[in-house]
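TODO from last week: model Sn-glycerol-3-phosphate transport system permease protein UgpE.
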Amino acid sequence: MRRSLNYFLLIMFSILFLAPFFWMVTTALKSIDELYLFPPKWIPSKLHFDNFIDAWKSQPFHIYLKNSLTVTIMTMLGQLISSSLVAYGFARFQFKGKDFLFILLLATMMIPWEVTMIPLYMEFNWLGWINSLKTLIVPSWFGAPFFIFLMRQFIMTIPLELEEAARIDGANRLQIFTRLIIPLMAPVLILVGVFQFLNSWNDYLGPLIFLNDQSNYTLTLGLALFRGVYGVDMRGVMAVTALICLPPLAIFFAAQRHIVGGIASTGIKG
């Protein structure tokens, strides 16, 4: 009875959370006559799959897709490389003021992005990077406090004896990091990669502030262009939104096991 009750509650909550996605897909497949019916019609009488094609062709979404993929892939690489290097330094190196610098690094997590938005814009404007994808890519190559914290916690769970054995065999610090630590960090690297993918793919405020030319727009900005003089093309919005949601969902379900493992392993020690 208890197990049946648990399954019932899980199913009910699953339906509750899946309802908006179901409504999004069915709205994208409706005809214009069924769009504003009241009471609303959940399942359309005829599925109009051509709504997806029309919505995608209504704007240069192939350009937006290329920009989103460029920003997402480059920011993922930047965060994985820079954050892992800094995390390894905090986890293994001993230097004066290390604890203070780590606490200072964690303290920056309490500063909201809205506070640094104007200074960042002024700095990028001085560098001549406004209306360029550099404004979205370059900051990720300097690490993120949260990702550094996760990686540091994971590295501290790796036994020091492994590094000492590698050092006895003649390996230097760089070889130990690239050939020993990085392969062992696979779960947390996948976790950070998924988090960064979601952050970059769904980012709207950053591109809205730093990008002006439509040829540099990302998918999130392109989605905001479904605005007409008298209203919003809801079928187009839902169709493009459903297409934009597919890559994050695929990445999440593919890496779900590693995400759970990475989160669990980062809290074992530290």
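Done. The longest helix spans residues 61-92.
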